[in-house]
Amino acid sequence: MYEKKPWLKFYDTHVPEHIDYPKTTMYNALVNSANLHPDSIAYDFMGNESTYQQLIKQIDQCAQALASLGLQKGDRMTIAMPTTPQGVICFYAINKIGAIASMIHPLSPPKQIEFFLNLSKSSFVLTIDSVYNNFEHLIDKTGLKALVLVHMNPDMKIIPSNPKVHWWKDIINKTYPQIPTSQMNPDEMAVILYSGGTTGVPKGIMLSNYNFIAEGTQVATWMNLSDGDSALAILPIFHGFGLGVCVNAIFMGGGKTILVPSFTPDQVADLIDTKKPTLIFGVPTLYEALSRNLKFQKTNLNFLKAAFCGADTLPRTTKEKFEKICRENGSKVQLREGYGLTEAVTGICAMPLGEYREGSIGIPFPDMMMKVVEINTEIETPIGQEGELCIHGPAVMLGYLDKPEETTKTLRTHKDGKIWLHTGDIATMDKDGFFYFKIRLKRMIKSSGFNVYPAQVEDVLYKHPDVLEACVIGVPDEKQVQMVKAYVVLKDLNKQGTEMKENLIKFCQQNLLKWSCPREIEFSTHLPKTLVGKIDYKKLEEQEAAKIKKP
Question: Between 2 and 252, where is the model more confident?
């Protein structure tokens, strides 16, 4: 079925079946955008704007500075930065040199930093001064040659002098000899991103220039991006969504990225009001927080062209609240779901702008192919039947860093001769080629022999008027193998109690099959979040496991 690409007839008129991607580096692709749009604004950071022409000069200067410190083609450099110009500039400067960028969270704890530095074999690091203490003791325990610090904390105590420690403001303002642009093979590893670690230890995901250029060009084409468009870069640059869509894809289309170093609903509401972005990309918790924000509820939104949600299942109540606010403030935007994973940079599938289907993650971008197969096989499932989602196309990763066995399990050559990425996600496809995400394969709960999908149960709980947040997990049970348990945050914490628990369970029973209903509900004041703002169900599972281990 997938070979027929039934989704093609739903492509918007400006979207082709195939795109001719330049076989070059990300730096060269950005130079091409700068040649086309030299005076257009490339980024806006807290009111400080830079044109594309100025951005290339900043990248060239950074590349010369890094080369003078000893960074060479093939070296690895870790960027542990919030979403700031320095992080973006350094990313493309590393690429110009022909080195490899490893992207991690700036607030990672020291042990995790050490793990990432050793795994990536990073010899250089860029980070902010306020987390220097997390790196200080690693300078001599890892292969670090240089630690570059960006001054962002005015209250920071004096950092001891060290020949390996350099300040961004010092190195970026010196004069250096010009360095040539690397003739890096576009198919070589250029970036290392990391899996969320939901299957255990985080894995390094090897991505090439070609992966980023293909994915970025696909998104830019899908959105029909131009230099008149702008997007809020709320998602962090250590995450594929933030780096691949909010920065690189916007640059591929010649648009403006509005860099947001940290998220607060008030701050983002102000930015939307003052900067008037045509595009918003985010995760469900971002849209939920915005929809509850009084400033956002009163903001004129007639400039908004599209809003996309990814990285987690979008509760229907969140979608409806956001769209209602948009309608009341001059925008007909529908909050559309897309789909992606770091193993393919990020988004590779989305709802076309001219179509909408309830609950669908959309259709594949140009040159990306998707199919649903029976679990642990290559056999395609019938229309509408659940199976594992597989992906093929130019955005698919090179593999997992130093993990050949994991790579072989995930990237498999099928009988059609194509290499398919087995995502570990359960999905279905309808007759028109629209895909519907169900759940992560490993997150499925087996209760009394039946498959229970936490996202489906959570969706029902979110429809209850008293529920603010919900997360459903499976806990061991003698009779059912696994029992369905829900963690719930109420809008009014005073309503917590036995009566409300019974109320919620009864509500679920009215909307779900018996074995899908929670047997237990635990109230909380807040739910743990991952680094990109998703509800961290793994942490809740770990908490339950710890309870069982206690005597």
Answer: 252
